[in-house]
Amino acid sequence: MRAVKRRAAWLLHRVLFVCCATLLPFSVAMNAENDYAEQRARLLVDIAGMAASSASYTGRSSFSPRVMQAIERVPRHAFVPESQRAHAYENRPLPIGEGQTISQPFIVALMTDMLEPRPDDVVLEVGTGSGYQAAVLAELVARVYTVEVLESVGKRGAQVLRELGYDNVHTRIGDGYEGWPEHAPFDGIIVTAAAPHIPQPLIDQLKPGGRLVIPVGPSGGVQTLVLIRKHMDGSVTRSETIPVQFVPLTRTAD
Ligand code: SAH
Asked: Known catalytic residue: 130?
């Protein structure tokens, strides 16, 4: 009888050990996810504070709850290189390789808010980069088309988007100056690289009633974040917001 009890105790011990051994990595992963969620919550507070303090330049003292929720949902740490993970939820741009950067989260929130995205919209992004801005948009609209000129960067961004299940994002390698005519017209267009002037193909591919957000100015210097509105009669108006610094929009023909 004692032998049976001993065997039962040994078995229980084995079972518990096996369970713990499999639960441990799971709980470490859960803790990391909770950490990131907490860091993301702090980032949202930071973005809200910056929105309030820059209201006189941007014309908006807060961002729409939908935009803030999208920022809260997207795991920015998944879009930055391993070496930058610890900084993923700091409110600043980070290097993503090949001399390119993932934009400051405040700027992503601001540009997204300026676009005023609606659930049925189809949006074009020029400059896929890490894929982060495309993911934020994908949380808010029906479909996102995003173009990246650097093949290695674009492929990596596309892979992260795919792995995270953003299947309403369509990626392409090419020169975004030309837009993506096959899927035009777009309800909104967002350019995340600085152009010396507003590319005419992008204005042409905007729907009447649509919005284009783009940093305009010299490469390597300070640019202005510009909002273009296309009216129902096809005319466009331009308004300028805050000074920004983006990597340049490069042309494949350069
Ligand atoms: N939206 C990105 C930020 C990327 S930085 C993110 O969320 O991470 C700007 C990106 O624009 C770079 O990856 C750069 O290679 C790309 N780019 C520059 N010129 C371009 C062009 N003509 N067409 C498409 N992408 C371009």
From this structure: no
